[in-house]
Amino acid sequence: MKRRKFLQKTLKGVAYPLLVPSLIGCNESAELSSNKTIIVIGAGIAGLAAAQKLTENGYKVTVLEAQEKVGGRLRTNRRLGFGFDEGASWIHGIDKNPITALAQQAGMKTFFTDDESIKSYDLGGRPRAQEIYTSAEEELYQILDSLMEKGAANQSFETVFKRFYPAKFSDRLWRFLLSTYVTFDTGDLDKLSSLLYNEGEEFGGVEKIVTNGYDTLATYIAQGLSVRLQERVTKIDYSGLRVRVTHNSSISEADYVLITVPLGVLKKNVIEFVPALPSQKQEAIQKIGMNCVNKFLLVWDKAFWDDVQYISYTPQEADKFNYFVNIKKYDSSLNALMTFAYAEYGQKTENMSDAQITDAIMTHLKDMYGNNIPIPLYMLRTQWNSNPNTYGSYSYTSTETELRHFAELGESIDNKLFFAGEHTEIDYFSTVHGAYLSGIREADKILDLS
Questions:
Q1: Secondary structure (3-state) at 420
Q2: Average pLDDT score, the chain
Q3: Pair 197, 150: CB distance under 8 Å
Q4: pLDDT at 249
Q5: Which domains occur in the chain, in start order?
Q6: What local confidence, expressed as pLDDT, does residue 34 receive?
Q7: Contacts of 376 (CB under 8 A, 6+ apart)
Q8: CA-to-CA distance for 97 and 206, rounded, in angstroms?
Q9: Which of 124, 174, 365, 424 would bridge 410 by S-S if both were Cys, CB 3.0 to 4.6 A apart?
Q10: Is the confidence at residue 4, as pLDDT, over 90?
């Protein structure tokens, strides 16, 4: 997968210490603090990481999760007898990445997806010469490495790119590259900051796709934790000595509360805070962007497409089913393709029926492979933007975003309310490892109070 590939080419990998979670037994050297109670809101990777470390250190931790299973955006659909990861799919940079070690412990299986194994088609099913594709790809890296020097506050990436490269912006191949290399990783180009689009750090090494379900990781970390499922939090009152949390028809109290719900949920104000959150935190919530990326998996009884890892297609409309992952390359028993819709078009798909989605995807596949290709047996889809547990996919730097906003989202309040999630991790926002590291960070804060 090319996710963040341009950052890997233009930024040096951060020298982050290798974090290998124990997840086995308790930390015997830690002073037990069993008299302290903690509520963690959200059983995504951030909440589970924090809960596991705090439990190891003797705290009484309860995790409240609105969904029917743990994992949050690490959500795997197994309805067809195999794992379709609706959210995260890849480990982005395996060297010194804490998720790499966790994956090995959890028995999560991965596969190296070769970015060079790709076939590109233009309208009319015309194959694109590999050298043309590669040349444009390399030029894009160069532009992305320097465009921020021409950017300006409150000006979008789209505005600046069109000013300096108007012909490229109307070129189908370039619109595809911008869609899959930039919009996919960040957000809508007309809302993306022209100054901050490449902020963030990367772990080195190759990227690997998970082949037996990312929920394997969440299930593993959750072992031994007190997790209450289908408990939707609607109110957090931190005006007293202890924090009172309203969930479903109950009220629970704790010394500390860690909030790990996605940024999209915070934006919707579906949780009432008493007193209201500080103005700086409210500003950060509103000004950091939240992207929408939806995924679609189609299954046939026989493969008809190229024997490559990736298939690209360059339609007129941006962000629309223009990139296909060949699942058969790492699971020979599964004749399936996975494709995507990003940003505004991603949101548009949420109001389309399954039949409309399938027809739109098949229109592109028929243009590449002919009108006689069979219709799929099954189609699985996501609707992240309207999902009340997420209201989006992951955070990005919008034209209103300042880097301080990420730090402000992660600031604790009165040593009672703590905040974690990918949107609170300035170096690794929008990633699984960023969410995980944020959970460890907040657990350490709570441990330091003892």
A1: coil
A2: 93
A3: no
A4: 87
A5: 34-71+114-201+214-450 (3.50.50.60)
A6: 62
A7: 298, 299, 300, 358, 362
A8: 11
A9: 424
A10: no
- What is the average per-residue pLDDT within 271-295? 98
- Residues contacting residue 218 through CB under 8 Å, at least 6 positions apart: 43, 44, 45, 48, 70, 71, 72, 74
CB 112 within 8 A of CB 310: no
Confidence of residue 190 (pLDDT cuts 50, 70, 90): very high
Q: Which two tokens stand for residue 293?
A: 């990326």
CA 3 to chain centroid: 11
| pLDDT beyond 70 at 241 | yes
- Identity of the residue numbered 215: D
Answer with the residue of higher pLDDT: 11 or 21: 21
Alpha-carbon distance of 106 to 71, in angstroms, equals: 14
Q: Specify the DSSP element, H or E, that contains 406.
A: helix 404-409
Residue with tokens 């599964």: 334
Instruction: Please give the Cα distance from 68 to 216 (Å, whole number).
Output: 15
- Output the pLDDT for position 35: 87
Average pLDDT value for residue range 379-398: 98
Closest by CA position to 25, among listed 228, 224, 227, 226: 224
The pLDDT assigned to 244 comes to: 98
The position carrying tokens 């989006």 is: 392
Q: Rounded to whole angstroms, how far apart are CA atoms 307 and 118? A: 9
Give the alpha-carbon dihedral of 156, 161, 167, 169, to 10 degrees: -50
Q: What share of the chain is helix, strand, coil (3-state, %, to 5)?
A: 35, 20, 45
**In the predicted structure, residue 10 carries a pLDDT above the cut 60:** no
The mean pLDDT of 83-111, rounded to a whole number, is 97
Cβ–Cβ < 8 Å for 353, 252: no
By the 10 Å C-beta count (0-12 exposed, 13-18 middle, 19+ buried), 303 is classed as: middle
* Residue in the structure block whose two tokens are 């390399």: 138
DSSP string for 134-179: HHHHHHHHHHHHHGGGG--TT-BHHHHHHHH-HHHHTSHHHHHHHI
Place of tokens 């100054």: 195
Pairing of strands 60-64, 293-299: unpaired
Confidence of residue 16 (pLDDT cuts 50, 70, 90): very low
